[in-house]
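Troubleshooting log. The previous structure file for this entry was overwritten by mistake, so regenerating from the original sequence record. Sequence copied from the archived sheet and checked twice against the printout by T.R.
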Amino acid sequence: MKLYVGNLSKQVTDAQLNDLAVEYGKPVSANVATERDGGASKGFGFIEYGTDDEAKAAITGLDGRDVNGQALKVNEARPRKDAARF
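Regenerated output below.
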């Protein structure tokens, strides 16, 4: 299951997001979304877990948690709406 993690401070890195994710299971991936030009953080990211139980534990544990002075918003990721269809 893939999770959306919003309201990340601009200083959070992939490694720090992974460290948060490890508290609730073994993440498959943990990535902060970045701008194409310059690589600055967009303020959100994604964590993917191999099991739904780990993902649900992470939602419960991380949603609302204060990280660098900002309360995280964590929920199940939805498919991209802007994906090109040919």
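The beta strands are 2-6, 27-34, 41-49, 66-67, 70-71, 73-76. Archived copy saved in two places this time.
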